[in-house]
Each structure stands twice: as structure tokens, then as C-alpha cells.
Design a protein that fits this description.
415 residues, alpha+beta, Helix Hairpins, 10 strands, 67% helix, ATP binding, chromosome, SMC hinge domain-containing protein, coiled coil
């Protein structure tokens, strides 16, 4: 009977040990999964944000260039039409000038003929006055008759000369007017041509800008489809994230802005959300190192912390770490090197070096991870912790803690 009890006790102990091992494995797998999902979510959100910014910027630039190009194209068409109209007007004016010039030449010839006729009549009159009695046909005529005919010819010639002179003067004035109009049309044509060349150059410049944007047909649709895919992925990961947050409520940190125009950069967030674990195998050890401080909230100053506590409507009690007041300490490099020489450089690390974080959080991270060593095995942890040159707290990858004060604690850390 006693023997059966002992066997049962051994079986129970073995089962308990096995349960601890399985719990440890489950915890490590869950943490690894959570880290991978969180990292993928952040990466996809960043990719989506970057794609959205690039798409918005490219779309705005493309719309602006298209709008400018459309305006310049309209200007170009208007200028081409104006140039065509001007060219037709110039041709019509040139025809009018030619017509006036021809008319002017004809009038000049008429004026010349009238002048010659007047001269001939004057000579004839002089001849008659001298006593000649023959008319233009050589026939005999009385002096009075020839005088009358001569006066009529002179009067007629003078009238025709005056009319020709008036027509000539009018033609000269009209010629000057048409020449001025042609000159003005030439000037307008030149100006329109210069404007056309400017629009043409501007159009070429806009086309070059479109090329620089790497715009091509269908690319916009491809970017939109990529954006939709990223949005769907982010949505799925967000659902997974919310599911994990509901399971591990201690990782959720929400607050209300304590005042108007609140700068959210003043509140950095939970320590757990501000670090990245460089090697998943060290996750358990780092959780043990941080302990409850893993859920402390980092803020920039104690003033921010006070406002957060008083008006932030926090849903649970939280410890706040103000960066400007935190007193941090970091294990010296000499001590770390002694530990590495004692058990091997790859078998012991300062906990602080196993996490990634923003440089502005340095003091907070030193406060939490700066004075504890992480060792691969219990034997190495024991050597490091109780060596008189080191005498520093250490944690194994399995979560066992060694303290130079002589205490040992073990087991998996669940949050």
C-alpha cells in the first residue's frame, strides 16, 4: 500500500513537472506568435501608411499637372485659332491694299493723262490767240468758236484733274490707313506667335513632369488595388490584434486627453508596447526581468503623469514613469565582460541589450533592464550571480531567477 502511494506521488510529481514544461512551451509559443503578429501588423500598417502617402502625393501632383496641361492645351488651341484668324485677316488686308494700290496707280495714270490733255488744250489756246484758225481736225473755224471749244476743253480738263486729285488724295489716305492696319496685324500675329511658342514650351515641360512622375496607364488602378489589399490585410491583423488584446487585457492602455489640444507624444505608452524582443528565445527571461514594470506607463514629465492620473479617466491603476525624473542605473561594461569571460560571451547578456527601443526611452529601459543579466542555463546563472567580482541578479532563459542575496525562484511567468 505504502509502495503504491509512493508511486502515485511520483506519478503526480512527474505529471506536475510535465505540466510545467508544457505550460512553458505553450507560453513561449504564444509569445512568439504574438510578437510575430504584432510585428507583421506594424509593418503592414507602416507599408499601408507609406503607400497611402505616396499614392496621395502622386495623385495630387498628377491631378495638378493634368489640370495645368488641360489649361495650357486650351490656351494653345485659342492661340492657334487667333493665329489662323489673324493670318486670314492679314491676307484680306493685303488684298485690300493691293486693290487700293492698283486703283491708286490707275488714278495716277488718269491724272497724268488729264495733265497732258490740259497742256495740249493750253497750247492750242495759245496758238489760237496767236491767230491760228484751224481746229483739231484741220478744218477752218472762226476764232470765237475755237476759243469757246478751247475754254470748254480747259474747263473739262481742270474738273477731271481736280476729281483725279481728290481721288488720289483719298486713295493715299486709305492706303496709309490700310498699311497701318496691316502693320498692326503683323504686330498682333507676332505677339500671338510668341504666346503660342510659350504655351508649346510649357506643354512640353508639363509632359516632362508627367514622365518624371512615372505615370503610365493602369498604374493608378494597380496602386489602388494594392492599397485595397493592404487595407484588407490590416483589417484582418487588426481583428487578430483586438482578439489578443481581449485575451491579455493588461496590454491595453487607453486614456482620455486631459486637456484641449493635447500632444499625444507626451505619453509614450506601456513598456511592453515600447520594446521589441531581438531574440524570441529570451522573451521569458525578459518578462521575468521586467516583472510588473512591464505594464508601467512612460511619459515625458511628472506634469504629464499628474494630468494623466487626474483627468485621463484611466480604467485601472497604473504606475507612471516620467522620463525627466527617473533614476536609472546600468551595469558597467567591466562587470558584463567579467561575466562573459566566466561562462562564455554567447551564454550571458545584459538584459538591456536584448531589447530594441527608441533612444528617447533610454533612461526608462535602463531603469527596468539595466541591472540584470540573462544566462542560458541555471549553472551559468549561478556562477555569474555569486561570483564575488559580479554579485548581480540573473535570470535564465527558462525564467529561473538567481539573486546574490541567496534567493532562488523559478517557474514560468504568465501575464
Amino acid at each position: 500500500m505504502q509502495e503504491s502511494i509512493l508511486k502515485l506521488q511520483e506519478t503526480i510529481a512527474e505529471n506536475e513537472r510535465r505540466i510545467k514544461e508544457l505550460s512553458k512551451e505553450i507560453g513561449e509559443l504564444e509569445k512568439k506568435r504574438d510578437q510575430e503578429i504584432g510585428g507583421a501588423l506594424r509593418s503592414l500598417e507602416e507599408s499601408l501608411a507609406e503607400a497611402q502617402r505616396t499614392d496621395t502625393k502622386a495623385q495630387s501632383a498628377l491631378d495638378l499637372v493634368k489640370q495645368n496641361l488641360k489649361g495650357e492645351e486650351k490656351k494653345r488651341k485659342d492661340l492657334v485659332k487667333n493665329m489662323d484668324d489673324d493670318a486670314k485677316a492679314v491676307i484680306n488686308k493685303e488684298k485690300e491694299v493691293k486693290k487700293i494700290t492698283d486703283n491708286f496707280s490707275s488714278l495716277q495714270e488718269t491724272s497724268q493723262k488729264d495733265g497732258e490733255a490740259f497742256t495740249a488744250a493750253q497750247q492750242h489756246f495759245n496758238a489760237v490767240s496767236a491767230g491760228l484758225s484751224s481746229n483739231e481736225d484741220g478744218e477752218e473755224a472762226t476764232l470765237a468758236g475755237q476759243m469757246m471749244a478751247c475754254k470748254n476743253d480747259i474747263s473739262k480738263a481742270e474738273t477731271e484733274a481736280k476729281q483725279a486729285q481728290m481721288k488720289l488724295k483719298h486713295a493715299q489716305q486709305e492706303l496709309k490707313t490700310k498699311q497701318a492696319e496691316v502693320k498692326k496685324m503683323d504686330s498682333g500675329y507676332k505677339k500671338d506667335n510668341e504666346a503660342f511658342e510659350a504655351v508649346k514650351k510649357n506643354k512640353e515641360k508639363l509632359e516632362e513632369e508627367i514622365k518624371k512622375l512615372n505615370y503610365e496607364d493602369g498604374k493608378e488602378e494597380q496602386l489602388l488595388e494594392k492599397r485595397r489589399d493592404l487595407s484588407r490585410n490590416v483589417g484582418r491583423l487588426r481583428e487578430a490584434y483586438e482578439s489578443l488584446m481581449s485575451r491579455y487585457s493588461s496590454l491595453r492602455f487607453d486614456y482620455r486627453d486631459p486637456e484641449k489640444n493635447w500632444d499625444k507624444n507626451r505619453v509614450k505608452g506601456l513598456i511592453a508596447s515600447l520594446i521589441t524582443v531581438k531574440d524570441p528565445s529570451s522573451a521569458t527571461a525578459l518578462e521575468v526581468v521586467a516583472g510588473g514594470r512591464l505594464y508601467n506607463v512612460v511619459v515625458d514629465t511628472e506634469v504629464t503623469g499628474k494630468k494623466l492620473l487626474e483627468k485621463g479617466e484611466l480604467k485601472r491603476r497604473l504606475t507612471i514613469i516620467p522620463l525627466n525624473k527617473i533614476s536609472a542605473r546600468r551595469l558597467g561594461n567591466d562587470t558584463v565582460n567579467v561575466a562573459k569571460n566566466l561562462v562564455g560571451a554567447d551564454n550571458v547578456h545584459l538584459a538591456l541589450t536584448l531589447v530594441g527601443y527608441d533612444s528617447e526611452l533610454q533612461k526608462a529601459m535602463e531603469y527596468i533592464f539595466g541591472t540584470t543579466l540573462v544566462c542560458d542555463t541555471m549553472d551559468n546563472a549561478k556562477k555569474v550571480t555569486f561570483d564575488k567580482r559580479i554579485m548581480t541578479k540573473s535570470v535564465t532563459l527558462g525564467g529561473d531567477t538567481f539573486d546574490p542575496q541567496g534567493t532562488l525562484s523559478g517557474g514560468i511567468f504568465f501575464f
